[in-house]
Amino acid sequence: MAKKILIINGHPNKESLNFAFAAAYKKGALETNAEVKELVIANLHFNPNLTFGYQKRTELEPDLLHAWEQILWADHLVWIHPVWWGGLPAIMKGFIDRLFLPGFAFQYKENSVFWDKLLKGKTARIITTLDQPSWYYWLVYGRPSVNQLKKSTLQFCGIDPVKITYYGIIKNSTDRKRRQWISEVEKMGRQNK
Predict the structure, then answer these.
(1) What global pTM score does this model have?
(2) Distance (Å, rounded) from C-alpha 43 to C-alpha 12?
(3) Positive or negative, the Cα torsion across 18, 10, 3, 115?
């Protein structure tokens, strides 16, 4: 049975290396007869603010409902994003805030500190770009974007395993280096990882 892969691109700039990574991953995955869908968060029309917090539900816009259907459809989620100020781009954070909700992605158990993970059975890969070495991001800052997306969101909701791939330093990278990275991402796609 063909693997169902959803590529979620969190970069708002279509001319970014992140878009080249998404295209490369898709190309590689399609060579394996995987079913591939793409979701570009910046193309969605929605309010990224969780206006009432968790006190009152804000109705989901049609684009968010469609995005959630795609997430439920997928076996494997590929998240591609830059690290900005140690974390996720604002539009990507707003997407998660609005969509990974109680009753959708997880459900707290009554009178308990524990919860049901409603996205069990799915796997994920995070491909992230940095303007610092990945070891520095880990050692000095503690990988805040990874902790947020991998641990506090995806694994919290039952998605496991979640693999991480870092690319950087982006600002000083040569065309040759970028082509090498794009080739690596295409290979990841062929491996459906």
Answers:
(1) 0.96
(2) 8
(3) positive
